[in-house]
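Action item from last week, closing it out:
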Amino acid sequence: MVKPIKLEMLKDFNLIATTERTLESRACSELWMLLRAVGDEHPLVDRIGIWGIIAANTKLDPIESILKIETEIKEKPSKYNSLFRIMPIQRIVPTSIENILKATKDFQQIIKPEETFRITFEKRRTDLSSKTVIEAVAEGFPQKVDLKNPDWVILIEVLGRNTGVSLIQPNKILNIQKEHAKAFIESRKKLKENT
């Protein structure tokens, strides 16, 4: 059973997930069960007061947990219907353009000169301008931008007063809805082959 935990505890969240409005409690239960299934005996998962968003703190590496969760969902796709996307968060900063720039500065050393990147900026409960933040962050990176097929994604998730920031490869954002669609298409193919 998921214990109710308020946002104050989740200032150290390292995963966020999206769900349908009003299904946050069910999504919390699913994410809690997923994290337990992939090796975290005591994950903390809760709503954060923003419709359609939940957060988790796992003892597992957040990026590696995405890969493990993806495998679990592929094995039991019908068990997880409330979660839409799960994203790893590497750093949390108070929401301001200055703090976001500081948090992303270290990423410059990780992206090789020949590699490309994209900035994904999602905001909730903030007046920050997407264009202003994206341009300011991109300005600090000499590497090329590739919006369609980047080597890296600079993920910036503004959740009111707190912002989660990550540097991840594009496949480290788990889109569960796409996984369900792939599983459905595969099952239809197999059904056609067997008839």
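Closing note: The helical segments are 24-37, 62-75, 97-105, 107-110, 130-139, 176-194.
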